[in-house]
Amino acid sequence: MGGCFSKPKPVDVKVELSLLDKEKEVDGLSPNGKASPFADCRLNGALGHGSDDDSTPLPPYHKPRDYVEASVCHVKDLENGQMREVDLGSGRALLIKEHGEFSAMGHKCPHYGAPLVKGVLSKGHVRCPWHGACFNIATGDLEDFPGLDSLPIFQVRVEKDKVIIRANKQALQSQKRSKPMSRCSAVINSSTGFSHVIIIGSGPAALVCAETLRQEGFTDRIVMCTMDRHPPYDRTKLSKSLDITAEQLRLRSMEFLQDHDIELLTEKEAVAIDVKTRSVTFEDGLRMEYRKLFIATGSKPRPMSFKGKDVRNVFHLRTPEDANSIARLANIKNAVIVGTSFVGMEVAAALTDKAHSVSVIGIESVPFKKALGEKVGKAIMKLFEANGVKFYMMNEVSEMIGHHGQLKEVVLKSGKVLRADVCVIGAGSVPATGFLKQSGLHVDSKGFITVNKTMQTNVDGVFAGGDVVVFPFPPRNNKKVNIPHWQMAHVHGRAAALSMMGRASEMKTVPYFWSAMFGKTIRYAGYGDGFDDVVIQGDLDELRFVAFYTRSEEVVAVASMNYDPIVSRVAEVLGSGKTIKKRDVE
């Protein structure tokens, strides 16, 4: 993967901090200039496991009309460490030159479509500038998350000093491919109360676990159970686009899951686990036995204490239906957001062009103070205020007042009364592990499941991952931490699957997070918990900055706005095991 949890001997490294608009870009050349700024970085870990065919020359083509061939540049147009986006007529490709060799693959990250030419090229892989996914330049394989799909690769040859690419037209259009997966070899009766693997949850940890098992050759039964009504979908988009549908958010279709023999049971809530009989009991009375169990139930809203909890139009954003209802009810009405979590703030931003008024209530002095620091929090707060959002900080809700059961007012502990037609509570979350009581699984005082570095719990055959776990984090001397990032859940899912198959390997990644508000994106990499200082470069007032979070003179995390691909660059450095000192960024 794109990083390393093991901690080699520290190597100090300087981080290039030039603003990207000052970097000269010619004919789509990579902004990382003539060579990778991370010449000493190690190749990402061995997460990619494509088939043998992935890295071997493609076979002769029997249907030439399905392919396009084009001369894209002179052999001297690219120097080592450079990338260029090139047009083949039927689509575009990313041309890469490293160690004197040319390679070509899809030019868009399959996750959200980011232009990879603006990413970071370092020893055999390209890291996405938006969310940090990594792709092997020889095979196109996804080597670090987020995302599910890999990239197509294309044949490259040099003739008479011309670089020629030959590519499948369909691959040029799709810009993605799935890794080969095995099928279930057992004859399965869907009513059978036994599955070799049961996965509880359908988020990224659950889905990646199931897909990794199939990619690694697992041929027994896999059953994935979820409380949700829908096949796996991208929950991170709910708070950013409230009108979006489950279909638009979908990560995998039912057809895809069926084609790869991943059984999905929707609206199935697990209520108990018996580790002695290796069984899971569901709310509807169904009981299933397992050989291996993966728990990835995610989080649930943090309980709050206030009067009037029974009034209508008060939401915790959990589903597409919740999002759609919030958008509909807030139209030209008064919206109140309780909490300044990333979800709460994203909802507030999304409602500014719909609602008559948007008010945000927070217990801190500024939003994101604990995660991003006071200076960055103030700058983001100003962005919201400029878009008409009113803040009531250092405050809490005392009561929700309704008329005929319908929300009308939110009363604060300060005595302030806010008009409210719809309220969204975004005050954080807690792990959804209540059903594990009496199970024998070790759950800490906050409700998190304790796992080791391979996602194994204290019970043989039971694994867990995603938001529900605390796991050993080597950069903090294996302190047990909880990192509830979408990207990290993918990593956990893969690690658990490999562990189930007896192929356990240490997780190698750098935590990566993002949030979008008013068309601007905050990118964040690393683990900044407990930072003691923030070094800021750029202009906070213009929201064009990079913030380095330091702890004991060492950079432990980085955040940016309008400063790509600096966060992916820093992730690459941290992921290679190097240390960035505070003095290097001051």
Task: Describe the structure using short key phrases.
586 residues, alpha/beta, Apoptosis-inducing factor 3 isoform X1, flavoprotein, oxidoreductase, disordered N terminus, FAD, Reductase_C, 35 strands
Would you spell out the secondary-structure blueprint of this structure?
Blueprint: E1 67-74, E2 82-87, E3 92-98, E4 101-105, E5 120-122, E6 125-127, E7 134-136, E8 142-144, E9 153-159, E10 162-168, H1 169-174, E11 194-200, H2 204-215, E12 222-225, H3 246-249, H4 254-259, E13 262-265, E14 270-274, E15 279-282, E16 287-295, E17 299-301, E18 314-315, H5 320-330, E19 334-338, H6 342-351, E20 357-361, H7 369-372, H8 374-386, E21 389-392, E22 397-403, E23 406-412, E24 417-419, E25 422-425, E26 429-431, E27 449-450, E28 462-464, E29 469-473, E30 479-481, H9 486-500, E31 512-517, E32 520-526, E33 533-539, E34 544-551, E35 554-561, H10 566-575, H11 582-585
Parallel strand pairs: 11-12, 11-16, 12-13, 16-28, 18-25, 19-20, 19-25, 20-21, 27-29
Antiparallel strand pairs: 1-10, 2-3, 3-4, 4-9, 5-6, 6-7, 7-8, 9-10, 14-15, 15-16, 17-26, 22-23, 23-24, 29-30, 31-32, 32-35, 33-34, 34-35
Architecture overview:
With 586 residues, this protein is an alpha/beta fold. The chain has eleven helices and 35 strands. β14 (270-274) and β15 (279-282) form a beta hairpin. α2 (204-215) runs parallel beside α9. The model is unreliable at 1-12 and 17-62 (pLDDT under 50).
